[in-house]
Request: fold
Amino acid sequence: MTATVDRVITKTAFVVRDADLTDGTLLVLSESPSELATPQLVSVRGTVASFSHRALADRYRLGPAGPYRAFEGGRALVAQEVAVWD
Reply:
């Protein structure tokens, strides 16, 4: 999927925005850190998973739960590849 970076939470977690997404935004998690900024255009490839901060925090170095509350129990994209368009 290709979308605009809406918010950067950490180097391994960010939110993208696209009109084709059901809620308009989607949380993206990556094991590889990325240097991202809003409103960069990114292409991400991965697998959709149910988001649980408790289950995923260590693996993706998410930090405190606060910024993720809106995504808890929802969907997140676990990215295998993140490409930034300049």
